[in-house]
From TrEMBL:
<keyword id="KW-0808">Transferase</keyword>
<protein>
    <recommendedName>
        <fullName>Aminotransferase</fullName>
        <ecNumber>2.6.1.-</ecNumber>
    </recommendedName>
</protein>
<dbReference type="InterPro" id="IPR004838">
    <property type="entry name" value="NHTrfase_class1_PyrdxlP-BS"/>
</dbReference>
<dbReference type="GO" id="GO:0030170">
    <property type="term" value="F:pyridoxal phosphate binding"/>
</dbReference>
<comment type="similarity">
    <text>Belongs to the class-I pyridoxal-phosphate-dependent aminotransferase family.</text>
</comment>
<dbReference type="GO" id="GO:0004069">
    <property type="term" value="F:L-aspartate:2-oxoglutarate aminotransferase activity"/>
</dbReference>
<keyword id="KW-0670">Pyruvate</keyword>
<dbReference type="InterPro" id="IPR015424">
    <property type="entry name" value="PyrdxlP-dep_Trfase"/>
</dbReference>
<dbReference type="InterPro" id="IPR015421">
    <property type="entry name" value="PyrdxlP-dep_Trfase_major"/>
</dbReference>
<dbReference type="InterPro" id="IPR004839">
    <property type="entry name" value="Aminotransferase_I/II_large"/>
</dbReference>
<dbReference type="GO" id="GO:0006520">
    <property type="term" value="P:amino acid metabolic process"/>
</dbReference>
<keyword id="KW-0032">Aminotransferase</keyword>
<keyword id="KW-0663">Pyridoxal phosphate</keyword>
<feature type="domain" description="Aminotransferase class I/classII large">
    <location>
        <begin position="33"/>
        <end position="385"/>
    </location>
</feature>
<dbReference type="InterPro" id="IPR050596">
    <property type="entry name" value="AspAT/PAT-like"/>
</dbReference>
<dbReference type="Pfam" id="PF00155">
    <property type="entry name" value="Aminotran_1_2"/>
</dbReference>
């Protein structure tokens, strides 16, 4: 018996980008000390007040089937938040609640792409992007961004990818603030991408799960730009903004008819998420912007630590770190690839970071460092990483 081509080719027969993370976890399980700076997992747990709301809802009986598109109250609160933050009038009918941002990406591509259609995304990319595209039967089309451009995409490169594809291209996926690079797309970049989507009849899928983690500049949702609301699907989540990664509360916002169609998809896949979890999500959102700023504050501090340490040496360079909970470091002066550097750092120093190559070819020669351990430990780990890089660079010169 054989499996479907679609499921066996989610990773296109190659690695899925998580090899070093798994190796680090095996080392930890074997009792070896490792400072893990790999995945975007907060070093704090979900706030007890949110957990208490979840407990009250569960004990109060909200444990049966919940409304598939989301409870009316949660959809309304998400719509209120989006209206307030983007200026785009948004009602509950424009919101589908999904089990996390990843499910939102899957639903958005299902809604916009048919079998064999091309789906564009920017390289470097979050590791699941190409697999998500392949999982819906579309063709993954990465567009390389350049380190010298701050990893912002050039429209001419997207145009070239569209022209070179033998078929119909249906969507463009962007992520700002960006994982893994930390880039925040400025208005002019978003306007250019929006114009390109309009010209080529593309859906714009905007992954905005890091919208509360802004260190430099301002977040602008492309849905708020003139003419883009009707062709933009926004993916959001409580995972990063409220330290609720395990609760799996996310959403897709977009035109009412598209949301209704995706509700049909949810009925035939996830059948919604537990009501008591949705109630906890509602409570979390009602805690307001001050609470979200408190969750983001440790990453802002560690971003400043990273900027200071990198500025004190000359081997490793850092991108501006405008947003998100990561620092993307250029280690090409060591003469090593991102994969070789990360593997040697793990083996020799017990520090786990993600190779840039885990996020696409454009990030080769870089490593992504998650700002996800307490400040003192983070400063120690990054200082050791920089000394390690300096030694490798000196050895190369010798």
């Amino acid at each position: 018996m054989t499996l479907s081509h679609r499921i066996t080719h989610i990773t296109a027969g190659g690695p899925d980008g998580w090899d070093l993370f798994r190796k680090a976890r095996r080392m930890v399980a074997a009792g070896r000390p490792v400072i893990e700076l790999t995945i975007g997992e907060h070093d704090i747990r979900t706030d007890p007040e949110i957990l208490q709301a979840m407990d009250r809802a569960a004990r109060g009986g909200h444990t049966g089937y919940a409304a598939v598109p989301g409870t009316p109250e949660l959809r309304a609160e998400i719509a209120r938040r989006l209206t307030e933050r983007t200026g785009v009038p948004t009602g509950p009918e424009n919101v589908l609640v999904v089990p996390g941002g990843q499910a939102g990406l899957f639903a958005a591509h299902h809604a916009t792409c048919d079998e064999g259609d091309g789906a564009l995304y920017i390289d470097p990319y979050y590791a699941t992007y190409p697999g998500t595209v392949r999982a819906v039967g579309a063709v993954a089309l990465p567009v390389a961004a350049r380190a010298e451009d701050g990893f912002l995409p050039r429209t001419e490169d997207i145009e070239a990818e569209i022209a070179g594809f033998d078929g119909r291209v249906r969507s463009l996926l962007i992520n700002t603030p960006n994982n893994p690079t930390g880039a925040v797309y400025p208005r002019e970049a978003l306007e250019a991408l929006g114009a390109l989507c309009a010209e080529h009849g593309l859906w714009l899928i905007s992954d905005e799960v890091y919208d509360t983690q802004l260190w430099d500049g301002a977040h602008l949702s492309p849905r708020a730009l003139p003419g883009l609301a009707d062709r933009t699907l926004v993916v959001g989540s409580l995972s990063k903004s409220h330290a609720m990664t395990g609760s799996r509360v996310g959403w897709v916002a977009g035109p009412e008819d598209v949301i209704a169609a995706m509700e049909n998809l949810a009925t035939h896949t996830t059948y919604g998420i537990p009501g008591f979890v949705q109630d906890a999500g509602l409570h979390a959102l009602q805690l307001g912007a001050e609470f979200e700023a408190k969750v983001a504050a440790p990453f802002r501090r560690r971003r400043e630590i990273a900027a200071r340490l990198v500025a004190e040496q000359e081997v490793v360079r850092a991108l501006p770190m405008q947003g998100a909970m990561y620092a993307m470091l250029d280690i090409r002066a060591t003469g090593l690839s991102g994969e070789a550097f990360a593997d040697a750092l793990l083996e020799q120093e017990g520090i786990a970071v993600m190779p840039g190559e885990s996020f696409g070819r454009a990030a080769a020669g870089h490593v992504r460092v998650a700002l996800t351990v307490e400040d003192d430990r983070f400063e120690e780990a990054l200082s050791r990483l920089l000394r390690f890089a300096a030694a490798k660079s000196a050895g190369r010169a010798a």
